[in-house]
């Protein structure tokens, strides 16, 4: 016989075993691919059916026909479930189980109740044809556009199987062919069809893997494109280097940072140690190669975090700063593929930090000035009293001696030393801006000319002094005396910077527009608010110059580079205080061996009244600004002029002066000075006693002269109390610590004049005479 049924069933069992194992392997390897599990189960069920038919005659017919027919009927349904699972349709497993149970019941009924072989065959054929029809329908739905060749081939195979099943089911009864002849042919045909179906199922799995792979690659490409777009548009710089120091990729932020063209990665980038790639430490020094982030990753294989690096860019020497991070990117075997550098541009932050340091230095300077000013205010009162007592008593003692007395020379030296101490206090007060300022409209070019003429007479032979004033220079509101002091201090410093070598000192004065970009921000703002121009005063020399360390300290109080005894370190702080009082700023440019230039900027005066005469300004020029003033050619001091005593007057005609001070020494001195000039003096050291004297005799006094700084009750309080008793009484207040607030309060209180106490010895008698005459 051509087809031996047992042999075919044995071959079918072996083929189904291989199919079950193959699909089980696919399920294990690709657990996300649906279908192979069901197909493996269908093969196992088919094995059970083949075994049932194979053992027919060896076991009861109930088992062989029942189990064999049910298993062979159920296997196509399970394969259909696998197809639906693969096509990602819902799997009606419960209905398949009910169908298998129904087939089993019908097989039992048609075998044990009614022995109807044709009925059993009809049930088998009906179930198999239904499974084929359902599979065909699902494949049509899954590939309606007929784009998947594997599904189309499987669909045609199903159609052929369906037709063959119909033919076998119909042809056998009609042709009168026995089952023994039809069965082997049917088994052989479906064995071949099953093998082809398995191949197509495998092709479906391969197709799904290919589709999923393409989808994964597409997703990967999309993610890579998104990542590239994200990295490209990051504000942080990203650079990817190969281990051979060449650049693999770079984003736009990094190209902008380095000033490169907006093109792609530069694979020919020089090594990090090359001339095109220099890195600087935070202190501005070149970074050693093994300290560079890239090299550290290469050497250690470990990430590097938060390294501040400066990178010179362009040919202008500009340095940009960045916070670098670097990490290695390894391949699957652990080898280094790339070194990724990421960095954030912190140039603006570094600039802000530098500006903050500058502001902190300015704040420190301001605090020093404030501290010194507070110290000056406290010292000025007591120190001026001491100096006034020394000068006054020296003057009185000199008047008591004959002109040829040997002691007069000693008294002259005492007065000279005391005057120098007085000038030192004046310098401190000028530095701390506690000296009264009388600002009038002045011609700075005239002050410059007169000051240079004054200095030129005291210049050493090796120094040349030049000055130039632009004719279009505007006037300014200033204290002419203090502007002259600024010029003398700067000029004298410039002469000292020549260090005895031939050199040149130049003073230049001109005007600038209020919106000139060269103006400092503060002066430009003041000019804009006042709608005025600006003045620029430059004092330069070609002397020794200064280092950065010295230049950063030149405005510190008492800082000096001169030898001990040749300077107090107050000259430039005084200049700074005067310039700031006048609303100006100072710019200093200096290099060692190339000289120094001080540039002063002031807002000009608005249109207003006629300027003060220049000779008045020169007349009040400081005679002895301690460390900066030129000395007379012979180096001698001029003896103070002696004021002759006032002519004797009758007691009834003597002006009566009430003097109040908490210092006994000064009270004694002032009383003697005034009495020698013909005044009648009543002095007190207690405020309440002075007020009581005025209350008891309101009209007895022609002038009240009181100190301001006294414990318990100030001189202004005493003035208010005395004026409340006698509003017509002239009152003068003396202080070594005069502020704008004090002058304003004194004016409101009715005080006629505020006397600067450093001039107390000479000024008291003058003020007394003037106020008494006014009265």
UniProtKB/TrEMBL annotation:
What keyword terms does UniProt attach to this protein? Membrane, Phosphoprotein, Transmembrane, Transmembrane helix
| Domain PAC as annotated: residue spans | 302-358
Limits of the Response regulatory domain: 656-772
- Catalysed reactions, as listed in the record: ATP + protein L-histidine = ADP + protein N-phospho-L-histidine
User: Could you confirm whether the keyword Transmembrane helix appears in this record?
Assistant: yes
**PROSITE patterns, per the entry:** HIS_KIN, PAC, RESPONSE_REGULATORY
EC identifiers of the protein? 2.7.13.3
CDD domains in UniProt: HisKA, REC
Q: What parts of the sequence cross the membrane?
A: 6-26, 38-56, 62-83, 95-113, 119-136, 156-175, 187-207
Which residue numbers delimit the Histidine kinase domain?
Answer: 378-606
The 4-aspartylphosphate modification is found at 707
Name under which the protein is recorded = histidine kinase
């Amino acid at each position: 016989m051509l087809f031996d049924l047992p042999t075919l069933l044995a071959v079918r069992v072996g083929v189904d075993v291989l199919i079950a194992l193959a699909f089980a392997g696919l399920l294990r390897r690709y657990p996300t691919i649906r279908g192979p599990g069901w197909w493996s189960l269908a093969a196992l069920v088919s094995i059970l059916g083949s075994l049932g038919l194979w053992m027919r005659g060896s076991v009861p017919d109930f088992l062989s026909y029942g189990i064999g027919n049910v298993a062979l009927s159920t296997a196509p349904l399970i394969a259909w479930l696998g197809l639906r699972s693969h096509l990602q349709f819902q799997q009606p497993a419960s209905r398949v189980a009910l169908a298998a149970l129904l087939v089993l019941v019908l097989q039992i009924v048609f075998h044990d109740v009614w022995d109807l072989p044709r009925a059993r065959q009809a049930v088998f054929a009906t179930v198999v044809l239904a499974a084929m029809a359902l599979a065909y329908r699902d494949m049509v739905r899954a590939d309606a556009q007929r784009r998947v060749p594997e599904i189309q081939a499987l669909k045609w195979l199903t159609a052929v199987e369906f037709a063959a099943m119909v033919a076998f089911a119909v042809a056998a009864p009609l042709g009168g062919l026995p089952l023994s002849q039809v069965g082997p042919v049917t088994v052989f045909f479906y064995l071949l069809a099953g093998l082809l179906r398995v191949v197509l199922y495998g092709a479906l799995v391969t197709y799904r893997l290919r589709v999923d792979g393409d989808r994964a690659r597409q997703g990967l490409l999309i993610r890579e494109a998104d990542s590239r777009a994200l990295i490209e548009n990051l504000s942080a710089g990203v650079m990817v280097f190969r281990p051979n120091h060449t650049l693999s990729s770079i984003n736009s932020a990094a190209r902008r940072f380095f000033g490169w063209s907006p093109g792609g990665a530069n694979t020919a980038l020089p090594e990090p140690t090359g001339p095109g790639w220099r890195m600087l430490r935070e202190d501005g020094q070149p970074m050693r190669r093994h300290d560079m982030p890239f090299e550290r990753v290469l050497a250690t294989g470990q990430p590097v975090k938060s390294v501040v690096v400066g990178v010179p860019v362009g040919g202008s020497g500009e340095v940009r700063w960045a916070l670098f991070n670097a990490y290695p990117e390894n391949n699957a075997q652990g080898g280094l593929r790339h070194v990724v550098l990421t960095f954030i541009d912190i140039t603006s932050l570094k600039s802000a930090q530098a500006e903050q340091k500058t502001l902190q230095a300015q704040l420190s300077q301001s605090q020093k000035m404030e501290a010194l000013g507070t110290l000056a205010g406290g010292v000025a009162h007591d120190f001026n009293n001491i100096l006034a007592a020394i000068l006054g008593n020296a003057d009185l003692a000199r008047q008591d001696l004959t002109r040829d007395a040997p002691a007069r020379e000693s008294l002259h030296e005492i007065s000279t030393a005391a005057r120098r101490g007085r000038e030192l206090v004046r310098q401190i007060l000028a530095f701390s801006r506690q000296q009264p300022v009388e600002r009038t409209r002045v011609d700075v070019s005239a002050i410059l000319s007169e000051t240079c003429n004054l200095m030129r007479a005291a210049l050493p032979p090796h120094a040349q002094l030049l000055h130039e004033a632009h004719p279009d220079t505007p006037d300014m509101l200033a204290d002419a005396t203090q502007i002259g002091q600024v010029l003398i201090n700067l000029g004298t410093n410039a002469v000292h910077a020549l260090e005895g070598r031939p050199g040149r000192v130049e003073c230049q004065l001109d005007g600038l527009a209020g919106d000139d970009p060269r103006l400092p921000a503060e002066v430009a703002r003041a000019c804009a608010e006042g709608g005025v121009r600006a003045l620029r005063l430059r004092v330069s020399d070609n002397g020794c110059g200064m280092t950065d360390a010295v230049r950063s300290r030149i405005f510190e109080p008492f800082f000096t580079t001169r030898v001990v005894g040749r300077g107090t370190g107050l000259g430039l702080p005084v200049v700074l205080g005067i310039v700031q009082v006048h609303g100006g700023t100072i710019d200093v440019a200096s290099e060692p061996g190339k000289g120094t230039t001080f540039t002063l900027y002031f807002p000009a005066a608005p249109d207003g009244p006629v300027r003060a005469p220049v000779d008045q300004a020169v007349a009040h020029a400081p005679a002895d600004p301690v460390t900066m003033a030129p000395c007379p050619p012979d180096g001698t001091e001029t003896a103070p002029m002696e004021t002759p005593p006032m002519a004797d007057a009758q007691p009834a005609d003597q002006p009566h002066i009430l003097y109040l001070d908490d210092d006994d020494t000064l009270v004694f001195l002032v009383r003697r000075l005034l009495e020698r000039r013909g005044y009648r003096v009543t002095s007190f050291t207690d405020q309440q006693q002075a007020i009581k004297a005025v209350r008891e005799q309101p009209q007895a006094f022609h002038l009240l002269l009181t100190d301001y700084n006294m414990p318990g009750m100030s001189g202004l309080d005493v003035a208010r109390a005395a004026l409340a008793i006698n509003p017509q009484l002239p009152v003068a207040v003396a202080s070594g610590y005069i502020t704008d607030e004090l002058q304003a309060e004194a004016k409101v209180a009715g005080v006629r004049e505020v006397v600067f106490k450093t001039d107390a010895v000479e000024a008291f008698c003058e003020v007394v005479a003037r106020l008494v005459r006014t009265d």
